[in-house]
Amino acid sequence: MNKQLTFKKTGCDFRTAFTLVELLVVIAIIGILVGLLLPAVQAAREAARRMQCTNNLKQLGLALHNYHDTHKRLPFASGGTTPPSGSPGYSAVSLMLPYMEQTPLYNIIDFKKPLTDPTNTAARLQVVPGFLCPSDKENPQPQSGGAINYMVNKGSLHWWSDPSQNGVFLPGRSFKFADITDGLSNTSAFSERLLTDGNNGVVDLQSDVFLGNGDPSSPDEAIQLCYATDATNLANQFPLFMGAPWINGQHTYLHVDV
Fold first, then answer.
1. Does the pLDDT value for residue 100 go beyond 70?
2. Number of domains into which the chain is organized
3. Is the pLDDT at 57 greater than 80, yes or no?
């Protein structure tokens, strides 16, 4: 007797999609991973930017030493190539251009004429990558000329034209290393400053620098002046120090996240 086998289809269904709970769990896991990885990526990027900015400061220090070795003195500040004053508007950095692989830019500058002279427009508008800190989120390029994040040390007094100013870069005056009696390792040559966003019509605490009305003689007085800043006076020319190369060629960098 032959028996016929029959198969009955069960009611089992095979799912091909996630449930809502599973989807939420996956999204939560992805969010946690992003939260863990993003700070590490940002830290790595900032470390690279910090290294680049430190290298910029180092190159400035080397250029300064090469300039001194050639001319037996430091460059002028706010003057030209001829002492005691020269043509107005030129910083010490402009005189150091040949020692920073910027000889073509140096050659098109007419130091016998003011920086604002039309013949110097092309040179004035040039942007030198080594003069910009990659950590500065703004890096604006004003219409008046190429921007720079590195300022010379004109001293600790409020007015750079003060005859008793104690900086190493002064208008109409040029110093030798031997004139720096405090020691080359104790004297800063350049310091980094934050650039503003170039918009004087909009106040932005993250990109604007404000000038306090006073000349503090102690850190406590400086703190008090912070409560009396002139919110309408955006002091684009005043520095916010972050990194600095010293006269002896060493350099330090203290990153400030503004």
1. yes
2. 1
3. yes
